[in-house]
């Protein structure tokens, strides 16, 4: 069922959460760049731009400590991080392409190993999605089966209205519970219509055809052409809402240090570099092939969907202009 919240009441809603100690992570300006970050006040919100990086950091930080150690004489002290201490969080203003990546990550982090660092944050987070009213040339959510109004991954979903304020729909019990806690700020309906939604200018890509080609073309001369420009900077993985590779590294000395979980990227030359010195992906095209294979074949083999939500960030930001939508579209015609 839909309900309505005015812009003023929305600010009150967020400020009430912040005052109560809830971590509210939302798009805000940081040194000229919009990022999903904890708000001090709802006045900091910037809702007219897709944040530069995705919302996955609310559950899966770029870098986090897992434990620390200290050695004094023969005595070694370990200090672990207790996920139970992670704060209750509302991830607010999440675009459909970012929200849809949340269940994609859930599947990975609860598959063969229950990653309590990710899962405890997920349990404690309510995701409030926001419909998109503008798209640029890089957006292609519709090509991968999503839309500017897709509610996948959202607990509550807001749609901007022509007269101001937002239509609000609860998509899960968690969302409904949050809505009921703040019922007084919502009204039954609005006299206005929703603002027109964004219209990404990309046709639906036949992902079944893409996968069928990938299933049979691990070795193909096309890979050399597809990724010769890639410089292996890893940016595409770091800005992606669905990429989730990480490395666990011990940092410190024999006396003291930390075990940390850091994002990794298959574009990096060391990504599969073995201790023996052998690297099965010893050239950049092999590494870029892995990116495409993982997103449109391996993840699909395991979890039945693609690992790309069409947010377009990797297209906008790739320093050498590699366009994953164009590559996948071309594969779909082979
Ligand atoms: S952002 Fe571009 S250059 Fe950098 S790793 Fe990704 S595809 Fe390669
Ligand atoms: S692969 Fe590129 S377009 Fe697809 S979800 Fe990741 S960053 Fe967005």
TrEMBL record:
PROSITE patterns listed in its UniProt record: 4FE4S_FER_1, 4FE4S_FER_2
Domain (4Fe-4S ferredoxin-type) ranges: 219-251, 299-330
InterPro entries cross-referenced by the UniProt entry: 4Fe4S_Fe-S-bd (IPR017896), 4Fe4S_Fe_S_CS (IPR017900), Helical_ferredxn (IPR009051)
Alphabetic keyword roster: Iron, Iron-sulfur, Metal-binding
Pfam families from the UniProt entry: Fer4_22
Name recorded for this polypeptide: Heterodisulfide reductase, iron-sulfur binding subunit
């Amino acid at each position: 069922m839909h309900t309505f919240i005015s812009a003023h009441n929305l600010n009150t809603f967020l400020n009430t959460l912040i005052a109560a100690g809830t971590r509210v992570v939302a798009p805000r300006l940081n040194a000229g760049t919009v990022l999903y970050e904890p708000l001090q006040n709802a006045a900091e919100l910037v809702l007219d731009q897709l944040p530069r990086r995705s919302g996955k950091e609310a559950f899966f930080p770029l870098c986090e400590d897992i434990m620390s150690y200290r050695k004094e004489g023969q005595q070694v002290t370990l200090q672990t991080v207790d996920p139970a201490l992670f704060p209750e969080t509302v991830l607010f203003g999440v675009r459909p392409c970012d929200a849809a990546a949340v269940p994609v990550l859930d599947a990975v982090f609860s598959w063969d190993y229950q990653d309590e660092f990710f899962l405890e944050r997920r349990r404690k987070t309510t995701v409030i999605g926001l419909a998109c009213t503008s798209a640029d040339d890089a957006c292609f959510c519709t090509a991968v089966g999503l839309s500017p109004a897709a509610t996948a991954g959202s607990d509550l979903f807001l749609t901007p209205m022509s007269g101001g304020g937002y239509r609000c729909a609860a998509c899960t019990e968690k969302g409904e519970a949050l809505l009921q806690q703040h019922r007084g700020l919502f009204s039954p309906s609005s006299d206005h219509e929703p603002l027109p939604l964004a219209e990404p200018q990309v046709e639906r890509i036949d992902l079944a055809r893409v996968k069928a080609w990938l299933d049979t073309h691990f070795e193909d001369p096309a890979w050399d052409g597809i990724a010769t420009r890639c410089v292996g900077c890893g940016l595409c993985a770091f800005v992606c809402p669905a990429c989730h590779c990480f490395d666990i590294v011990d940092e410190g000395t024999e006396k003291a240090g930390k075990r940390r979980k850091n994002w990794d990227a298959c574009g990096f030359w060391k990504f599969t570099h073995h201790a023996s010195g052998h690297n099965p992906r010893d050239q950049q095209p092999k590494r870029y092939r892995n990116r495409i294979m993982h997103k449109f074949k391996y993840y699909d083999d395991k979890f039945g969907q693609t690992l790309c939500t069409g947010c377009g960030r990797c297209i906008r930001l790739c320093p050498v202009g590699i366009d994953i939508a164009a590559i996948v579209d071309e594969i779909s015609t082979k």
